[in-house]
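Usage

Read records sequentially. Each one opens with the input sequence:
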Amino acid sequence: MNRAGTLDHDEASSDIRAAQDSLWKDGLALAGPDSDVLKGERRDSGGKGVHFSGPGLREHAARWVAKVAPWLEKQ
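and closes with the structure output:
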């Protein structure tokens, strides 16, 4: 599961992030990359949006590969 708590621009919800932490801790989901750290040019609307820009999508994909590839190799 991707870690994301961004609701409005750069503000991350601590409640959402805590809920995600509990899912990982309880073994209900595997931790994915933290997308809240992708800011600036990696966001749409000149860095002010909540969605990723082209460069942001590529960075997000690379972070997912880094998380998933080791798990896949163990299967």
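Summary fields computed downstream for this record:
- Residues 2 and 42 are 16 Å apart (CA to CA).
- The mean pLDDT is 88.
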